[in-house]
Design goal:
Blueprint: E1 3-4, E2 8-14, E3 25-32, E4 35-41, H1 49-64, E5 67-70, E6 73-75, H2 83-95, E7 108-111, E8 116-124, E9 127-132, H3 137-151, E10 154-157, E11 160-162, H4 170-180, H5 183-199
Antiparallel strand pairs: 1-2, 2-3, 3-4, 4-6, 5-6, 7-8, 8-9, 9-11, 10-11
Length: 207
């Protein structure tokens, strides 16, 4: 990952923003005395870039349950990094069409593969239980495993996941479960984006 002294450590990159002139947008992690925070940034000088970055940061706050701490700067209220989950929130935010209203995603999701509704229940202390209508335990365990991979979560039981910080992150779980049902495709997408970012020469990047 690239490093820039003033911006922090780059942790994710969208080489071509589909909603704003194909500019490159990057996510940087900064380490501060109050814990890690994240910066949404682009080097593009196009008019309207500031508004686009503000939308992405705002979408991350909604989708990931993050809080704003400055211009395009966010952090998790618990003070933890949750880097992998934050990267996912950034990618999801960049995909959103800005004409649509932002909303927190619910802790229930229709699983096309099983034809059942997935219900995630908060157990307190940052732990969640995954269940499917009809009691398909193997599918529930598979979805939980997907959440673990995408969010770098702990797995106290096959159908349970937990955040190491011990705090609830309902919005983050609601966002991740949509991708956790097909985690292989999601991880392939992330690998492709990472490869595309590496192929862009530093002099040609618009981040």
């Amino acid at each position: 990952m690239g490093k820039t002294a003033d911006l922090g450590r780059r942790v994710e990159l969208v080489p071509m923003d589909p909603h704003f002139h194909d500019i490159t947008i990057a996510l940087y992690q900064q380490v501060t005395s109050t814990g890690p925070r994240y910066l949404v940034h682009s080097y593009s000088g196009r008019p309207g870039v500031a508004a686009r970055l503000a939308f992405v940061a705002g979408a991350m706050a909604v989708l990931g349950g993050m809080e704003a701490v400055g211009v395009q700067l966010l952090r998790f209220p618990c003070g933890a990094a949750h880097e992998l989950a934050c990267r996912r929130a950034f990618l999801e935010a960049c995909k959103l069409d800005p004409v649509h209203e932002l909303a927190v995603r619910p802790l229930s999701f229709f699983d096309k593969k099983s034809g059942c509704q997935i219900q995630i229940t908060s157990l307190g202390g940052g732990a969640y239980r995954v269940a499917l209508e009809g009691g398909d335990e193997s599918r529930a365990a598979a979805v939980a495993a997907g959440l673990v991979k995408l969010g770098q979560l702990e797995s106290p039981a096959p159908d349970r996941v937990a955040f190491g910080c011990g705090q609830a992150h309902d919005a983050l779980v609601g966002m991740l479960v949509v991708r956790a049902v097909n985690v292989r495709a999601t991880l392939r997408e992330q690998e492709l984006l990472a490869a595309r970012g590496l192929l862009v020469a530093p002099s040609a990047q618009q981040t």
